[in-house]
Amino acid sequence: TALRQQEIKRTKTVCTYCGVGCSFEMWTRDRQLLKVQPVVDAPVNGISTCVKGKFAWDFINSPQRLTTPLIRENDRFRPASWEEALTLVASRLLQTRDQYGPDSIGFIGSSKGSNEEAYLTQKIARAIIGTNSVDNSSRYCQNPATEGLFRTVGYGGDAGTIDDLQQAELVIIVGSNTAENHPVIASRLKAAKKHYGQKWLVVDPRRHEMAERADLHLRIHPGSDLVWASAMARYMFDHGYEDAGFLAERVNQVEAYRQSLTPFTLDYAAQITGIQEETLREAAELIGKAGSVCIMWAMGITQHSHGADTSTALSNLLLVTGNYGRPGTGGYPMRGHNNVQGASDFGCLKNFYPGYESVSDPQIREKWAKAWGVPAERLSLKVGQDNFMMVELARKEVIRAMYVIGEETAFSDADAENVHQGFTNLDFLVVQDLFLSRTAQFADVVLPGCPSVEKEGSFVNTERRIQRFYPVMAPLGDSRPDWWILTQLAARMGHDWGYQHPQEIMAEVAGIAESFAGVSYSRLEGWKSQIWPVNADGSSTPLLYTERFKSPDGRATLYPLSWQPPAEEADAEYDLLLNNGRMLEHFQSTNQTGQGGRTTSLSPDWFVEISPQLASARSLQEGDWVKLISRRGEVEVPVVVTDRVQGKVLFISIHQGKDGINKLTGEHHDPSVNTPAYKELAVRLETLDRP
Ligand code: SF4
Fold first, then answer.
1. CA 584 to chain centroid
2. Cβ within 8 Å of residue 601, ≥6 positions away
3. Given 332, 392, 478, 516, which residue has the most CB atoms within 10 angstroms?
4. From the CA of 381, how far away is ligand 1's center (Å)?
């Protein structure tokens, strides 16, 4: 027994599945995962995890893992050495830059990779290629939320921590299926509800678990959230629930904003949202009377053609009621991928260096150029292209080469046909991934990266909390940590950065970006964590805005808005709305959770949820097959009849299906941030005659 125990290695890691950032020990013997063991020291989750954190690790040893670089030759992939593959990638990227200019190349960084890897991705784009065209998957999810926070309070992150969410008297949960998408946060809220009498106001078209447990559920017409939120703000002013002292002391543009609320009466809101006026009044009274309010929101808000405006409306409502800067208050966009916050924080954005430092500011450029040892002119002052525009410009042959790390763009981007056309038109595509993904099928060179358990690094969770993870096992085959690949690639492009360990990369960032000044691997050792902005002495900022908002005068801004209807609504021809989102058991394109392991067996197949009313009107029974047809394409799925959806609104997961949901989605997007309007999708339904 003693010998057996010695063979077992216990390693701290951080879950790679969602922005909650649970950490736990992995018990392994060589490559065999024996146990995922939560420990009380874990700062976010303590002894809790969800099914993905506990069980969704079969992919690590999947025979489908890439174990060697691949080069396309005669339309087939052949194995290659690292030397050959990296030399080819370096020369083709430099050639493209020299022939077509730096902005002919686009980079999509990984929201699953580490902070250090995100940093190196943007460093290659900026310091070697000379473009700001670098982005990450926050474009598809939380960019509109970030924009709403920039407009009103200043930082692109959650206002406080999960502790604050637990302390709130009232939590408003909008367009967030928290129990399935951020399960451990949902558990902590359930505890707050049970033990401290916390109240929940849930606003969602779908009656998911949080809605079932809510004190009040507003079952809203999709795409009309700006209207209820603005009507609530107006009600606060009309009924003396506004925090007049807070507004006078800390907020600009109060009167202009108040004027802009004129149209948003409860009566008007009832017409647009489909919620009864009396219920809206009940919601407003809940908000007005609560001593502390947090608002959590996710993709039910952001994946619309006006997601940034709706996010702004939510933050406005918090400002009107003085719900920022105190424990138990603030805005909480729920980050989806494990490190989508970190990928943005560490610079995979078209307009910011790490720490949200503007690329257009010549002094900031000077600072980064000096730190990186490159001429200032190499760093572009021009805002780059985002994911959405990169693909558009690839289609038009303006972008000639792309480098995609760990993102399943060919499956997860809206309007898949368009994306595929863009990739086909590229002269050169590099994909760095664990698997020969659908995106990799379009690549010229595929580089095998490693999952977090085979490397070292750090992630940032939805609370802005930075945590380290450690190597649980060695890289599989010839796969390599992404930071190693990027360092080697840079060397072959004439930039010998010489990093031997990710801690050197973090030390470099801390020396340049103010927000991370006091971050270091020693301060993050083991179960320790830091929450940015981190001061030079290493102290964290768990709760933002206690003294100042992030703006030149330290004040917040109320931002006037008007409501625009969704870009695509149901009509006579396409008479149903297809809502879509995530499921507890799966992650994104299921490249990790659908590899035949335990999470696959828990949820093996795609289905569409339809309401009992629709089932009865169309004579459909559970298990019947239907064809869903949008203006772009069609898919075939079996139906599940459930009152989680109502009327003519259906729901389908984004994870499954051969071609997935994006065969149906279209070009609609939020013009202020270029986030696709995945949730604005009209379809019609045909019954299929099959078993
Ligand atoms: Fe992982 Fe999120 Fe589940 Fe925690 S809640 S175990 S971070 S998927």
1. 16
2. none
3. 332
4. 38
Which CATH number does the domain housing residue 77 bear?
3.40.50.740
Q: How far is the CA of 26 from the centre of ligand 1 (A)?
A: 14
Instruction: Give dist(CA 238, CA 289) in Å, integer.
Output: 14
The reported pLDDT for the residue numbered 138 is 86
Which atom from ligand 1 is nearest to the alpha carbon of 20?
A: 7
Are residues 583 and 627 both part of a single domain?
yes
Contacts of 465 (CB under 8 A, 6+ apart): 21, 43, 44, 161, 529, 530, 531
Each residue's pLDDT tens digit, 204-242: 999 999 999 999 999 999 999 999 999 999 999 999 999
In a domain, 347, yes or no: yes
Is 537 domain-assigned?
A: no
Ligand 1 nearest-atom number relative to CA 461: 7
DSSP labels for 217-281? EE-PPTT-HHHHHHHHHHHHHHTT-S-HHHHHHHEE-HHHHHHHTTT--HHHHHHHH---HHHHH
Please identify, by atom number, the ligand 1 atom nearest to the C-alpha of residue 184. 5
CA 19–ligand 1 middle distance (angstroms): 7
Q: Give 689's pLDDT tier (boundaries 50, 70, 90).
A: confident
Residues 78 and 20 both lie in one domain: no
Ligand 1 touching residue 49 (CB < 6 A): yes
- Examine the domain organization and report whether 625 and 676 are in the same domain: yes
- In angstroms, the CA 209 to CA 62 distance is 33
Q: Is the CB–ligand 1 distance for residue 15 below 6 Å?
A: yes
- In order of 42, 112, 229, the CA distances from 25 in angstroms are 9, 19, 42
What CATH number is given to the structural domain containing 21? 2.20.25.90
Say how many C-beta atoms besides its own lie within 10 A of residue 375's C-beta.
Answer: 10
Atom of ligand 1 at shortest distance to CA of 45? 4
Specify whether 123 is located in the same domain as 180.
no
From 309, 334, 359, give the residue that closes a domain. 334
Protein residue with its CA nearest to atom 2 in ligand 1: 18
- CA 633/CA 681 separation, integer angstroms: 12
Tell me, using a 6 A CB cutoff, whether residue 14 lines ligand 1: no
The predicted-structure confidence for 145-182, as pLDDT tens digits, reads as follows 999 999 999 998 999 999 999 999 999 999 999 999 99
Residues 33 and 168 both lie in one domain: no
Check whether residue 345 and residue 488 sit in a common domain.
Answer: yes
Angle between helix 307-320 and 143-152 (nearest 10): 40
Q: How far is the CA of 341 from the centre of ligand 1 (A)?
A: 15
The pLDDT assigned to 691 comes to 55
Asked if residue 468 belongs to a domain, the reply is no
382-397 pLDDT, tens digit each? 999 999 999 999 999 9
Residues 487 and 352 grouped into a single domain: yes
Number of domains forming the structure of the chain: 4
Residue 2 has pLDDT above 60, yes or no: no
Which atom from ligand 1 is nearest to the alpha carbon of 24? 6
pTM for the model: 0.95
494/601 same-domain check:
no
Domain boundary among the residues 61, 82, 102 is at: 61
pLDDT score at 411:
85
Please report the ipTM that was assigned to this predicted complex.
Answer: 0.99
Q: Is 17 in the pocket of ligand 1 (CB under 6 A)?
A: yes
Residue to probe by mutation, ligand 1, list 13, 14, 16, 17, most atoms within 8 Å of CB: 17
397 part of a folded domain: yes
Ligand 1 lined by 19 (C-beta under 6 Å): no
